Amino acid sequence: MPDATGDADEILALEERALARWCRGDPDGFLELSAPDVVYFDPFRDRRVDGLPALAAYYDGLRGTVSAERWEIVRPSVQRVGVTAVLTFQLVSQGGGAEHRWNATEVYRRDPAGWRIVHTHWSFTGPPPPPAPP
Amino acid sequence: MPDATGDADEILALEERALARWCRGDPDGFLELSAPDVVYFDPFRDRRVDGLPALAAYYDGLRGTVSAERWEIVRPSVQRVGVTAVLTFQLVSQGGGAEHRWNATEVYRRDPAGWRIVHTHWSFTGPPPPPAPP
């Protein structure tokens, strides 16, 4: 049985592989990693996305639209708790001449099929830009 | 031993109690609920906050500054996984003449002392406002 460090390395490798596909416009890496009962937040949706079919429908609409030339996971942390592991990190990506900074939470669960994501939360890293001058 | 529904009710009650204090400017409800190894994201910080001492220092600086006249937890979900429970919800709060909408993740762990938060992620609910006219 792998130790906690081995689990952390495995989870980070899974996330990086899915992110590499995502940044080429391919959402299937995350869909293959996500559990049937996944729940999902990102800053573009006004409601949580509940369940894999709903997430697949959403991601299908984004297929081919994402293109990041470079990206980097910053300060990853893995908290291993029983059969779950809470991966948190910041993502810095460059694409289309702009840099984007994200906060990310991925809660993984050890399922019979392997580690699966049961919760994803993407948000923009702050602080927010100062208010426009009056 | 309480069943999963009992756990979900208990966790939601803990969160509501801490939120009620938070909305009166008192961060101690969340500090008492948070585990020593808590990791924390919100949209005002450019880095994750790691560990209870760092979170306490941050929250101490906010003591007395938060005041929400009304607030509501919307569509809470509790995913119970082994000794952890992933609580996600949206929060709508009114204060100072403005309405604020949040996405929230709280990962609770069943510790000997009771349920404790090991990860918090607050972000603004989207979609973001349209860009200002040129």
Q: Which strand-content bin applies to the residues of chain A?
A: 35-45%
The DSSP helix count of chain A reads 3
The helix/strand series of chain A, from N terminus to C terminus, equals HHEEHEEEE
Overall radius of gyration of chain A: 15 Å
In short:
By secondary structure, the first copy, chain A, is an alpha+beta fold. Chain A has helices at 4-22, 28-33, 52-62, and strands at 34-41, 49-50, 70-81, 84-95, 98-111, 114-124.
Describe the structure.
The structure is a homodimer of 134-residue chains. The longest helix of chain A is centred in the N-terminal third of the chain and has 19 residues, at 4-22. Chain A has three helices and six strands. In chain A, strands 2-1-6-5-4-3 form a six-stranded mixed beta sheet. By secondary structure, the first copy, chain A, is of the alpha+beta class. In chain A, 27% of the residues lie in helices and 44% in strands. Chain A is globular. In chain A, a hairpin with a 2-residue loop joins strand 4 and strand 5. The model of chain A has no long low-confidence stretch (mean pLDDT 92).
List keywords for this structure.
homodimer; 134 residues; alpha+beta; 6-stranded mixed beta sheet; 6 strands; 27% helix; 44% strand; globular
Topology readout:
The structure is a homodimer of 134-residue chains.
Chain A: H1 4-22, H2 28-33, E1 34-41, E2 49-50, H3 52-62, E3 70-81, E4 84-95, E5 98-111, E6 114-124
Parallel strand pairs in A: 1-6
Antiparallel strand pairs in A: 1-2, 3-4, 4-5, 5-6
